[in-house]
Specification:
The structure is a single chain. The protein is an alpha/beta fold. 34% of the residues lie in helices and 22% in strands. Helix 9 runs antiparallel to helix 13. The protein contains 15 helices and 21 strands.
């Protein structure tokens, strides 16, 4: 943001400088800067886009709720005393307290800790309230709290900024945003990858700040304070303790509430433009002359061969007919493309999504899903075949979740055949989608082969037509008791 002198002129600005010795003047100046920041930058570039361009059908993961063993209390100080008594290491900030990975966390926080990788740390807001409706901030004596709350947004807005920082290689991996139920109260918790490292050198700092400034200048990443990158939290050599050089040699900014995702559509479009050969399908649209995406991405104004909403509605109808709910289940998507079917499942409360596709597709697909707000998702890049071993790609914290999982095998059989290992994975339901060219004989042979090799039975069947593709067979297979 420009200095106040830009708006008042240098002579007036200097004349007002002596007033800063008074507390009321400093508070007024701070609030005035925020008003100017909100009016000139945030209203046109952030708030209006959140309101006007908000897509209610955006397929983003549901916020999971876990019971915690922390005592029922409205005071963060009580939690910190308990952690000290239990010998649990924690780091305290103005707005949060952070618990790095360590022995004994499950006994203090709850069994849900085991749902995440061993390197997961837990960043909990001090501002205890009712789920996503309370602010990240825990009060700020220098300015009116409401102004910062509006500027930073909801905990999910902060989560979006954290995911953006991860994608841009500015911050650590963000595993999840969850609500911890604490009796009648709730706590908001960010599950993040713990960064092991040391203080960066001045050269490390300079390189990081150069990259950060370039992303701010592109208009995708915003800073939630009017001082922008001039704030002490970005001062050399370690950004007020927020910049760590990891053991992997990269620099990570760990205090992510300062980052704002300013334009989700622009961010996703920038990925698609770079990966045009991998995500765009076949011949150009007859009107726009632009090539199709394969899967529609909600909120992105590009034509796609497959209509994600209609396709998911058809899948959902099959599952509903058998009373299948996706909440807390592990999902596996073979040939997942951008992962939109996984995203739809996560929006219904699925625990985690695993996808497989070509290496040149998997990496940008993962970035797109982070942009959409989906972090409980892992897409593996590989060349699939009938002999491919899926389980070698499944993280250790998800292995125990395979029992009862749901598999999406959508428009994949013509490309990779039928994976033999699915006979050994203890999934419960499998959604099969054929191809436009499948005739009755082909469909019958495919269904018979799945029944025989995967020890399953078909319990529901229908056809699907969506987007710019013809009619396809859709079937729900259920695993026989083993």
């Amino acid at each position: 943001m420009r200095s106040l002198s830009h708006y008042t002129g240098e002579r007036v600005y200097r004349a007002l400088q002596p007033l800063k010795r008074y507390a009321w003047a400093r508070r007024s100046y701070g609030n005035l800067r925020y008003v100017v920041h909100v009016c000139t930058d945030c209203i046109p570039h952030i708030f209006l886009k959140r309101l006007v361009k908000y897509d209610g059908s955006l397929a983003r993961q549901a916020v999971l709720t876990y019971k915690t063993t922390l005592p029922e209390s409205a005071s963060a100080d009580n939690f910190l005393r308990l952690l000290s008594e239990k010998g649990i290491e924690y780091h305290q900030g103005r707005h949060t307290f952070y618990l790095p990975p360590q022995e004994g966390l499950e006994k203090v926080l709850g069994a849900f800790v085991a749902n995440y990788p061993a390197d997961a740390g837990f960043k909990i807001l001090k501002n205890i309230g009712s789920g996503e409706h309370h602010s990240y901030l825990n009060g700020d004596p220098s300015i009116h709290p409401w102004m910062r709350r509006v500027l930073i947004g909801s905990p999910q807005d902060v989560f979006d900024g954290a995911c953006l920082a991860e994608i841009l290689d500015l911050g650590p991996r963000v595993y999840d945003l969850v609500t911890l139920q604490n009796g009648a109260l709730s706590l908001t918790c960010y599950v993040v990858e713990h960064v092991k490292g040391h203080e960066p050198s001045i050269d490390d700092y300079a390189g990081f700040m150069e990259r950060l400034k370039s992303h701010v200048d592109k208009g995708i990443l915003g800073i939630s304070v009017p001082e922008g990158l001039e704030r002490p939290d970005f001062a050399p050599p370690h950004c007020n303790g927020n910049l760590i050089k990891g053991d992997d040699g990269k620099c990570y900014y760990i205090d992510f509430q300062l980052f704002i995702l300013k334009d989700r559509s622009k961010a996703i479009d920038s990925i698609l433009e770079r990966e045009v050969e991998h995500f765009h399908f076949g011949h150009p649209h007859f009107l726009t002359r632009k090539r199709f995406l394969y899967q529609e991405i909600p909120g992105v104004n590009q034509s796609a061969k497959r209509d994600t909403r209609k396709r998911w509605s058809a899948v959902r109808a099959l599952l509903d007919a058998q009373g299948v709910r996706l909440k807390d289940r592990l999902l596996l998507d073979i040939c997942c493309n951008t992962g939109m079917m996984l995203a739809c499942g996560l929006s219904e409360g699925a625990f985690w999504g695993l996808g497989w596709d070509l290496p040149e597709v998997a990496s940008p697909a993962s970035r797109i899903q982070r942009m959409l707000g989906n972090s409980r998702l892992h897409i593996t890049g590989c060349k699939l075949s009938e002999d491919y071993i899926l389980t070698k790609d499944i993280p250790s914290h998800l292995q125990s979740r395979l029992d009862g999982s749901v598999v999406f095998y959508l428009a994949a059989s013509q490309h990779i055949g039928f994976l033999r290992e699915l006979a050994n994975i203890p999934w419960q339901m499998l959604v099969y989608e054929g191809h436009q060219s499948d005739d009755a004989t082909t469909v019958a042979k495919s269904l018979e082969r799945m029944k025989r090799e995967w020890q399953c039975d078909m319990v529901a069947r229908r056809t699907i037509r969506d987007g710019y593709c013809g009619e396809r067979p859709l079937a729900l297979m259920i695993r026989r008791n083993r």
